[in-house]
Amino acid sequence: MLTPPTWPVLIVSLLLVVAGVAGLLLPIAVLSPNAAWALLAGYATLLLGVFSKRL
Question: Do residues 42 and 53 make contact, with C-beta atoms less than 8 angstroms apart?
């Protein structure tokens, strides 16, 4: 059963996704080579928050 994510999970996942998009669009030395991983981590965090009731 799907549940809405808690606020901390939502904020962390949004920060990761925004960092990933910024890494794709802007030349950030540390983040640009790992932008796809940041996006994947953000979506995985959100998915985990939706499927878990305790997070």
Answer: no
pLDDT category at 54 given cuts 50, 70, 90 is confident
Contacts of 20 (CB under 8 A, 6+ apart): 31, 35, 36, 37, 38, 39, 40, 41, 42
pLDDT in tens, 2-43: 899 999 999 999 999 999 999 999 999 999 999 999 999 999
Domain chopping of the chain, boundaries:
7-51
Task: Using DSSP, state whether 16 is helix, strand or coil.
Answer: helix
